[in-house]
């Protein structure tokens, strides 16, 4: 029986529809999402937008977006709209939505019920020019140009390979995805929160390590930054940020100057101390008592002159360092220790020049008084670099308790620092009277003392750059550091699987004397990998095994070598380890499950609950009062190429977590080798050092 | 799933809003898998990350990190509602507590200065055994200035390679039980010190030796 429509919601049946939200500006509803009042103070409804509905609205010019009916946006039941409560909506135009009509067949009061997700592979089909030319869109996927142009760093970015598949080009794809894509803000955050710093200790300087870290950080930035062709602007293509290069140079030079200041003042202290030490003996023996007061005044004036001239050198170091760093732009791929030594050698060579030029005359006169034995200031200064500040006059039982020199990386945790060893540096400190840019910088800064040579004729020169293969970067698996614990001699090889995860450590040296487990650290000199960590187990003072709690990612299973070509391009190749070169060569291991570590007991477990080990090993649970109290490995299996997941099968329990510990047996030591296929063997390269 | 699947085998989560986004389960951060991360259109972010095991010990609760990044200032204003104490009232009333059950506190301003300012400042190195050290180290000057400067200790060492100045416009008192003094050129001083050290040093016997 026919029934007249009532046009009341629900009484005439539900009239479902599917449609597309219009562009806010074209539909003139852009004030309606969040504002109660339009700019002209006319009241408008919020939480509404216009929708072009399939089957009801056509695509012709006679029905522009602003003539479509306004649709209510239905809010979920956990949102209140009284007492000032509520929730904003975030339609931007282009969304495909599902809804119903409040007024049934009249179809003038649409309500949006929900949104259909735009799949990542659905690309926009309306170009900006087409979008701008019309007053309506027509059921095609699109992103309003306004939305695209104001996209934030928190939205998804995409990396597209170019035609050759060589370089990654970043783009904004406007898709919400849940897989591997990173965001600009994520990359920015990684870039900005990745840092390295050395610990502070009153006992031992670690200036070489500090300078090395600074130069490495500088090199890393320079590798990342890209200069625009059309201007002098540098950008960080990782996240598109514009880089203030002068600020970056200043920052790095400031930080290197901190270390240089410490070293130069240490040298000054030594030079003055050595000189006064010799003079005091001479004055005591040779100068009559009544004249010793006058001699002391003279010595005081002398030490003040030396002191102040060093200080003036210090003041100018910043500019010199800036020039040095500028000179390195585009040349550094890696900063090996020899590069740091060359850098410092060059720097101290320049300082030596200044010292001999400005103070050589004084020292010559002193030698006349002394009757010989006082070396040139540059010679004493070079010698001084090797000696750290040592507090004298304390008892052996009273020594400062010194921590081990370490570096901390926000990415990789703690690692052993490069020890300050100046023995290789001394031969590199040259004295060249012709190449001395510092003289140029200091011209006029140091007061000319009577009888001393003028600084006016100094030849300005460009600071030299490190010249020991800084254009080659060798990367390999991370180094394993065992830190602290009271013992020594422990060593191991990190086992990296094909996914770039650390799956364990093959102990190559158990060490001795450990009174507590040392800290475990993975040091990736190229900083490719990150996130791996775990802890060490010891027995009778020796390291027995390493438990990996997180395998991290991006570690290199093999060794690669990247070369910076003259044209600025990079060439990467895999390096075959040479046992006679810097590598110990390859070692092949058979992996098996050696132990299971309890992380969390969970609750509600029952006897009879079991564990499934991905990869075939057998593990038996120990249950106590519903808690997983531990697990025993019944059969360790073999052939694991990743840390296996341990899944507890229980109908009642939840929350228990077990960690696998893998054991690595050298292939030649594995008795069951005959039964093992090649797939079960993991090959690693040991003792990788740059 | 790609190679960056969450290490806990659960699904990833994303809620992207107009100016910020919530995420969970992503493996992109150098700090580990994100348990919770909020990031903004200007790349500020705050994240709580899953245990990486860095610096871990057996049986520990994990080593999950909390990381805050903002290109500008991070500002906290605290204690507005706490009692305003009178001058000289040093009753303890914490407005902020950072307790490290293990691990160190490092404040690293590598291109900035650090100011600690308060009505009173206490540095208390209360470690036992070989700990209990306060180390002040500066590349240029350590300047202690107050109307009343006191150094108290069992042993006090002033060691300078260049010069030591002690200046008083009023009184100068020097009291001691024994005097060991010599000009630097006087080598007899060293002989006396060595003799004393040899005569008074001893090595305690171990328990096994009785």
Low-confidence stretches of chain B: none
Instruction: Please state roughly what percent of the residues of chain B sit in beta strands, choosing from under 5%, 5-15%, 15-25%, 25-35%, 35-45% or over 45%.
Output: 5-15%
**Largest beta sheet: strand ordering of chain A:** 1-2-3-5-4
Shape of chain A: extended
| Mean of residue pLDDT values of chain B | 84
Give the biggest beta sheet of chain B: 5 strands, antiparallel
How are helices and strands ordered from N to C of chain B?
EEEEEH
Q: What is the oligomer described by this structure?
A: heterodimer
The rounded Rg of chain B comes to: 28 Å
SS class of chain A: alpha+beta
Number of helices of chain A: 9
Number of strands of chain B: 5
Instruction: Let me know the number of strands of chain A.
Output: 29
3D structure, described in words:
The complex is a heterodimer of chains A (690) and B (210). Chain A has helices at 128-133, 145-149, 184-193, 207-224, 245-286, 289-328, 337-370, 377-384, 437-442; strands at residues 16-21, 48-53, 70-73, 96-101, 110-116, 157-161, 168-172, 196-198, 226-227, 234-236, 241-243, 406-409, 413-416, 472-475, 479-483, 488-496, 502-512, 519-523, 530-539, 542-553, 560-564, 570-574, 585-600, 610-613, 618-624, 627-635, 646-649, 657-666, 681-686. With 690 residues, chain A is α+β, with helices and mostly antiparallel strands. Chain A is extended and about 135 Å long. The N and C termini of chain A lie far apart (89 Å). Chain B contains 1 helix and 5 strands, in the order βββββα. The model of chain B has no long low-confidence stretch (mean pLDDT 84). At the A-B interface, helix 3, helix 5, helix 6, strand 18 and strand 19 of A face strand 1 of B.
